[in-house]
């Protein structure tokens, strides 16, 4: 059994690979301390500034926080504007083509900046960097990019920046696979003072046929529970109120370790004093155990909110996507969750126009969302990704049909979202005040347990607090509420 020359295990060999791989106990697991690496890091960034443009998922957002931490330890300061920065870094997403197109457009427009500031360093990292075709295109048409590195080696960024400083050639440093074990004690500059992301697991073993993530992020690796819990304890000590446990497949947490699973980790996290809410994303339908449902149900600190991507309502499409469950099995899971957690809020991800999706199969997705009644859905048109198994299927749904299906699905879901929100009018809900609204500084934005945005008018001193509000108005995407006098609650 071996990985192919890109460092990935072939999809057909996965079960055998899992059986062959010795799962380390917690005590055996290797880990690398970033502090050891940092001893070699100089202060090259003194007097210079950096700007990171982040595309894609929360994992990328959090990687940006880590890279900002490393750069600031080198002396760099955050630039307000990209145009002012001495180091511009694109942290990219490869999940859909339009995310990539944006990056290509932006990279091209940076070329003139090089003429203005010859010392400017331009870098590209994240999921696009893991793609060979992207690296080839940079070599041939974007030589003004100085540095390309991938998802597996962000911890060597300081050394790479130094190298880029001295090199006339583009530096490509992309690893095929991750370092054995996890890298710990990474510095972080967190964007928010109330809510924080905590990585619990990297990579994905699932190989859904449309998805590039297993290729760009590699095999699943779990952080040791004690490293995760120590990070959460530190966040509590720093005054954070909410954490989101991050992974591509959080309910697979621990499959590469002997003696811990995701429910155990949630249980441990719920014991940390000071943290009021523990969220997690993304969970998947195939191994959502009763133990996990029970853990969520038992802890007040774990919101009754689950993002549970279904992708399609048709069992035939799900089989072609290799999702590992049928429509019936998914609905059965939803019923088990709703029985144990009656007020649960569910959201989902859906792809329309997957190869071979017929109008009838699309209709099955519509009836599924009507049956589940999600609070919201992230909906996407299928985008073929080079190297993924689905590209071997004929991409036979016309662009017009794909777009039309997306509009029709969004129409149905928007109505459901509005109705779900209208049901809340008059109810008193506990919300965490996150900060000023992004669109109106006189309004505060808060979040319900079910992850809904609530706009309220109140003092900025409430930021970071859990308070009770009465819902006064419902829109498709948010609620309006009024603050109840202190002590009045549910
Ligand atoms: N095309 C369209 N959507 C995709 N997603 C992942 N890969 C693709 C693709 N090739 C969507 C899935 C996933 C979300 C993060 O992005 O719905 O859950
Ligand atoms: Fe992609 Fe499927 Fe892994 Fe999610 S579970 S990252 S959709 S392969």
TrEMBL record:
Keywords: 4Fe-4S, Cytoplasm, Iron, Iron-sulfur, Metal-binding, S-adenosyl-L-methionine, Transferase, tRNA processing. The keyword Transit peptide does not apply. Residues 190-419 form the Radical SAM core domain. SUPFAM superfamilies: Radical SAM enzymes. It holds the Pfam family Radical_SAM. Catalyzes the methylthiolation of N6-(dimethylallyl)adenosine (i(6)A), leading to the formation of 2-methylthio-N6-(dimethylallyl)adenosine (ms(2)i(6)A) at position 37 in tRNAs that read codons beginning with uridine. Belongs to the methylthiotransferase family. MiaB subfamily. This is tRNA-2-methylthio-N(6)-dimethylallyladenosine synthase. It comes from Tumebacillus algifaecis.
